[in-house]
C-alpha cells in the first residue's frame, strides 16, 4: 500500500500536468450530457463526503500515449497483415481526426471541473442500451453461508436489519469514507445505492432516487409486498418486527402469482418502457409501481434451495425471471435454505460501493450468532401486498417470459475449484494472484480453441472524483510469449518461468495504470462517441483490429472479498465467456458462463491450465 500511494501521488502530479487548455468546440453530445446526471447540490456534503473535494480529477491521457499503448496491446491479437492494416489506421487517425477529437474532448473535460471527460458518457452508455438487464448487465455477489442462520426467514431478517442500519448511515451521511490504505476514494455513487431505481424510457432510461422511504419491497412467488423497516422517526424497526413480517410472507405459502409483473423488467428496454406506460394509466398500478421504485431496496424470498455455488449460479444471477425486479439498484436474494446474494443494476455504479455494503452487512450479521433465538416469539407485522391490473400488458408479459426462458435456456455454466494454486502458494512464489488467474484464462483459451481473443478486466478509478472504471487488457505480447511457451514442447521450464514472471509484472503494471486512469479503452471510447455525435466517419473505429480489440470475447472480473463465496455474470458476446474468479486460502475458483455450449469444455481447459501453472511455479 505504501508503494501504491507513492506511485499514486507521482501519477497525480503527472496527470495534472497533462491536462492543458485546448481550443475547439465541445461536441453536442458533451454539452447535452453535462446536465443529465450531475449530483444534486448538497448531496455530497457531510462527514461521509469529507474527502470528496480533496480527490483529484480523472486525468485525460495524452493522445500519443494512448495510441502507442493501443498499438502495443493490439499487436498481441493480430497476425502480421492485420497488424500492418491497423497501424495504417492508427497513423491516419493520429494525423487527421485524432487531434481534433482529443481537443474537443479536452475542452469538454475542462468544462466540467466537478466531474471528468468520461463520467456522464459512461452513465449514458448504460442508460441508452436497449438490451435486457438480466444476463447482460446485472451481476450477483454471493455471501458466505451463515451456520447460525440457515432458516430463510432468520437469514433474511438479519440481513435486512443490518442493511437497514447501513442505509441509515448513508442517509445521514455518517458512513465512514472509503479509503484504500491511506488513499481516499470517491463516494459519489452512494446516493444511488438506496431508494433508487432505473426507470425505463424510450431510447434512454433514467435513474431516480427517493427521499424519506421507510419500506422495502419483498418478492415471493411473483407476489410483491411493501414492508416497513423504519419507524416514523427513521429508526430501524425492532428486529422481532422485521422477522415477523418476513415470516408472515413466507408462512402464507401462496401459489405462484398468476400475474408476474416483475418479468416485465426482463424485457428489452423500449418494450418495457411501453408496457410501463400502459400500467401507469391505472391508479392502482401507479401506486404499486411507486412503492417498488421508492423502496429502500428489494428482497427476493425464493421458494427453492441451493446446494452449492454451482447450483445457485442461475438462481442468483437471474432466477426464473418472474420473482425479480431487475430495475432496482440492488436486491438481496435468499434461498429457502438460507443462501444469500446481492444482485445489482449496473448503470448507477460499480462494485466498490456495493462491495463495501456487502462487507459491512455480512460482518455484522455473521457476528450476531444469537439473532435466531432473540427474534422468536410474537410481534406485530404489517406487510402490504401490492396489486396490479395487468389486462393491458398480458401480451407483453407473455413475450417477456418467453424471451427470458429462451435466453436463460442457452446459458451454460461450469464452476472450477482447483487447489493447484492458492493465496499461500502464490505468496511464496512472489507473483500477483490476479496476474496468475488472468494468465491461466489465456492459456485455457489456447488449449481449448487454439486462438487468442480479447480479454476484458476492469480496474476501478475510484481514487478520482466521480471515477468509474478503466479497462485492463490482460492479453499482451508478454502474456502471449508465455502462453506460447506452455504449448511448445521444446521450451524449458526455466524459460517458461522467466516468461511467466515477466508477463505477471506486465499485468500488474497495466492494472496500476488502469487504476490511475492511464488505460487505452476509455480514451478511445470517448473520442469514438464524440465522432459519432458529430456524424463523423473515422476509419480507426471501423478497423477490424480495433473491433477485435474492443470485442470482449472473454469478460472477466475478480471476486475476492472476505464476505463473498463468489459471484457471476453473463457473457458479453454470443460466442464468448463471462468468467468470475477468485483466489482463496486453499484453492482458485472460476465461474464460467457461456451461451455457446462450451462452458464445461472451457472449465476443463482451465483445470488443465491452472494445474500446469501450479506445477511450473512449484519448480521455481
What this model shows, in words?
With 620 residues, the chain is α+β, with helices and mostly antiparallel strands. The protein has 21 helices and 18 strands. The strands form four sheets. Strands 11-7-6-8-9-10-1-16 form an eight-stranded mixed beta sheet, with helices on both faces. α5 (97-111) packs across α19. It is globular and about 70 Å long.
Q: What is the fold's blueprint, element by element?
A:
Blueprint: H1 2-18, H2 28-33, H3 63-74, H4 80-95, H5 97-111, H6 119-128, E1 140-143, H7 152-171, E2 179-180, E3 183-184, E4 196-199, E5 206-209, E6 215-220, E7 223-228, H8 239-251, H9 269-279, H10 283-294, E8 298-301, H11 309-317, E9 330-334, E10 340-344, H12 351-367, H13 371-374, E11 384-385, H14 394-410, E12 412-418, H15 423-429, H16 433-449, E13 455-460, E14 469-472, H17 477-486, H18 493-515, H19 521-533, H20 544-550, E15 554-558, E16 564-568, E17 577-583, E18 588-594, H21 599-618
Parallel strand pairs: 6-8, 8-9, 13-15, 15-17
Antiparallel strand pairs: 1-10, 1-16, 2-3, 4-5, 6-7, 7-11, 9-10, 12-18, 13-14, 17-18
Amino acid at each position: 500500500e505504501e508503494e501504491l500511494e507513492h506511485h499514486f501521488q507521482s501519477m497525480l502530479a503527472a496527470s495534472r500536468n497533462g491536462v492543458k487548455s485546448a481550443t475547439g468546440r465541445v461536441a453536442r453530445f458533451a454539452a447535452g450530457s453535462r446536465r443529465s446526471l450531475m449530483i444534486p447540490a448538497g448531496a455530497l456534503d457531510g462527514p461521509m463526503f469529507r474527502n470528496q473535494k480533496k480527490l483529484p480529477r480523472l486525468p485525460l491521457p495524452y493522445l500519443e500515449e494512448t495510441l502507442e499503448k493501443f498499438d502495443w496491446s493490439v499487436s498481441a491479437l493480430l497476425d502480421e497483415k492485420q497488424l500492418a492494416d491497423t497501424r495504417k489506421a492508427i497513423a491516419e487517425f493520429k494525423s487527421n481526426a485524432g487531434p481534433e477529437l482529443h481537443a474537443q474532448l479536452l475542452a469538454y473535460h475542462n468544462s466540467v471541473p466537478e466531474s471528468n471527460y468520461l463520467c456522464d458518457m459512461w452513465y449514458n452508455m448504460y442508460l441508452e442500451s436497449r438490451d435486457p438487464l438480466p444476463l447482460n448487465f446485472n451481476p450477483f455477489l454471493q455471501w458466505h453461508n451463515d451456520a447460525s442462520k440457515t432458516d430463510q426467514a432468520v437469514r433474511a431478517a438479519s440481513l435486512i436489519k443490518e442493511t437497514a442500519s447501513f442505509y441509515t448511515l448513508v442517509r445521514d451521511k455518517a458512513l465512514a469514507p472509503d479509503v484504500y490504505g491511506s488513499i481516499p476514494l470517491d463516494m459519489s455513487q452512494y446516493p444511488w445505492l438506496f431508494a433508487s431505481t432505473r426507470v425505463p424510457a424510450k431510447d434512454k432510461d433514467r435513474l431516480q432516487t427517493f427521499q424519506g422511504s421507510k419500506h422495502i419491497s419483498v418478492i415471493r412467488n411473483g407476489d410483491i409486498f411493501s414492508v416497513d423497516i423504519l419507524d416514523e422517526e427513521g429508526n430501524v424497526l425492532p428486529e422481532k418486527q422485521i422477522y415477523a413480517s418476513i415470516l408472515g410472507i413466507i408462512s402464507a405459502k401462496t401459489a405462484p402469482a398468476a400475474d408476474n409483473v416483475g418479468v416485465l423488467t426482463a424485457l428489452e428496454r423500449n418494450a418495457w418502457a411501453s408496457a410501463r406506460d400502459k400500467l401507469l394509466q391505472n391508479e392502482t398500478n401507479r401506486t404499486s409501481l411507486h412503492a417498488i421504485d421508492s423502496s429502500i431496496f428489494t428482497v427476493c424470498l425464493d421458494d427453492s434451495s441451493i446446494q452449492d455455488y454451482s447450483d445457485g449460479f442461475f438462481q442468483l444471477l437471474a432466477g426464473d425471471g418472474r420473482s425479480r425486479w431487475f430495475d432496482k439498484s440492488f436486491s438481496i436474494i435468499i434461498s429457502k435454505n438460507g443462501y444469500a446474494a446481492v444482485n445489482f443494476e449496473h448503470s448507477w455504479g460499480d462494485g466498490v460501493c456495493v462491495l463495501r455494503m456487502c462487507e459491512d452487512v455480512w460482518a455484522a450479521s455473521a457476528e450476531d450468532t444469537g439473532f435466531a433465538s432473540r427474534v422468536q416469539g410474537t410481534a406485530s407485522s404489517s406487510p402490504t401486498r401490492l396489486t396490479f391490473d395487468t389486462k393491458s400488458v398480458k401480451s407483453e408479459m407473455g413475450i417477456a417470459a418467453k424471451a427470458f426462458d429462451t435466453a436463460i435456456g442457452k446459458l451454460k455454466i461450469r464452476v472450477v475449484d482447483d487447489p493447484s494454486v492458492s493465496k499461500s502458494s502464490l505468496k511464496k512464489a512472489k507473483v500477483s494472484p490476479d496476474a496468475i488467474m488472468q494468465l491461466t484464462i489465456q492459456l485455457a483459451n489456447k488449449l481449448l480453441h487454439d486462438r487468442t481473443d480479447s480479454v476484458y478486466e476492469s480496474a476501478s478509478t475510484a481514487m478520482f472524483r466521480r471515477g468509474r472504471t478503466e479497462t485492463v487488457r490482460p492479453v499482451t505480447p508478454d502474456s502471449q510469449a508465455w502462453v506460447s511457451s506452455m504449448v511448445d514442447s521444446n521450451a524449458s521450464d526455466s524459460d517458461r518461468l522467466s516468461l511467466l514472471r515477466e508477463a505477471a509484472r506486465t499485468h500488474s503494471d497495466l492494472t496500476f495504470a488502469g487504476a490511475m486512469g492511464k488505460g487505452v479503452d476509455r480514451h478511445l471510447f470517448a473520442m469514438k462517441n464524440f465522432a459519432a455525435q458529430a456524424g463523423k466517419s473515422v476509419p480507426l473505429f471501423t478497423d477490424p483490429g480495433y473491433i477485435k480489440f474492443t470485442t470482449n470475447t472473454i469478460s472477466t472480473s475478480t471476486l475476492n472479498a472476505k464476505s463473498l463465496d463468489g459471484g457471476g455474470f453473463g457473457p458479453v458476446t454470443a460466442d464468448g465467456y463471462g468468467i468470475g474468479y477468485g483466489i482463496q486460502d486453499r484453492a482458485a475458483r472460476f465461474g464460467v458462463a457461456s451461451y455457446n455450449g462450451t462452458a464445461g469444455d472451457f472449465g476443463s481447459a482451465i483445470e488443465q491450465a491452472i494445474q500446469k501453472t501450479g506445477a511450473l511455479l512449484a519448480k521455481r
